[in-house]
Each structure stands twice: as C-alpha cells, then as structure tokens.
Amino acid sequence: MQDHLKEMAVVLKALGDEKRLKIIKMLASNSNETFCVSDVALQLGISQPAASQHIKVLKNIGILEENRKGFRVFYTINSDVLKEYRKEINELFRKAFEKCQYNFSCDQCSYNNKCK
After folding, report:
1. pLDDT digits (tens, 9 = 90+) for 9-47
2. Distance in angstroms (rounded) separating the CA atoms of residues 109 and 116
3. Domain 1-78 has CATH 1.10.10.10
4. In a 3-state reduction of DSSP, which class is residue 112?
5. What is the pLDDT of residue 115?
6. I want to staple 4 with a disulfide (CB 3.0 to 4.6 A). Which of 58, 59, 99, 114 is the partner?
7. In what order do the strands lie in the sheet with 72-77?
8. Distance of CA 18 to the CA centre of its chain
9. How many other CB atoms are found less than 10 A from the CB of residue 85?
10. pTM as predicted
11. Rounded CA gap, 62 and 7, in Å?
C-alpha cells in the first residue's frame, strides 16, 4: 500500500509550476509531434538547462516519455498517465467536500491507502 495523499502532493507540486504546465500544454496539444529540450527551451524562452530541469520533474511523475534518436532525446506526452492524474485530482476535490468517515485517521482511509 502506498500513501496516496503523499503521492498526489508530489504530483500537484510538479504541476504547480507555470513553465511545466506550458510544457504539458505544448506536448498534449501536439500529440503527433515530438519535442527535444532545445524546442521546449526556445518555445518557453528559457535556457536549455532550465528546460531540462522542468522536463525531469514531469518525467519523474510519468507525464512525459522520452525517445532517443542518436544523440538527441525527444519527448512526448503520456496521455494515459495525464488522464489518470486528472481522474485522481477530480476524486481528491470530490472527497474534499465530503465529511471524513475516518475522523481524519488517514492510515485507516481507503483513499489514502490505495494500491497502485
């Protein structure tokens, strides 16, 4: 069992950056295309090292996939993971407005201890 709330906090923290949200938008709205770090940097007007760091955060939560072609790495959006996070975030907000049946004992809550 995993601590689901901690996992979602990591995801929300990764999504809580304007540049990373722009990267997601750029890749998700151009799903037939791939982008390398320099493409992302150019599009966002940031340095390549900064773009690499943002990409790394998104890769760590599974939203981006990489494909190597020679010395270059190209990135695409992982739509399945993005859809799953959307579902989880919707569930998180739905639960926020329900009375806690476990009296905030998160270790007993089935939502917090979901198996992945």
Report:
1. 999 999 999 999 999 999 999 988 889 999 999 999 999
2. 15
3. yes
4. coil
5. 44
6. 114
7. 35-36, 72-77, 64-69
8. 13
9. 19
10. 0.81
11. 12
Contact present, 60 and 14 (Cβ < 8 Å) = yes
Count of alpha carbons within 13 Å of 87, Cβ hemisphere only?
A: 6
**CA 85/CA 109 separation, integer angstroms:** 19
93: which 2 tokens? 């907000």
Which pair of tokens denotes residue 66?
Answer: 């990489």
Please list, in sequence order, all residues whose beta carbon lies within 8 angstroms of the beta carbon of residue 40, skipping any fewer than 6 positions away.
23, 26, 51, 54, 55, 75
pLDDT value of position 111: 60
DSSP assignments along 9-72, one per residue: HHHHHHHS-HHHHHHHHHHHTTTT--EEHHHHHHHHT--HHHHHHHHHHHHHTTSEEEEEETTE
Burial class, 81, CB count within 10 angstroms (exposed 0-12 / middle 13-18 / buried 19+): middle
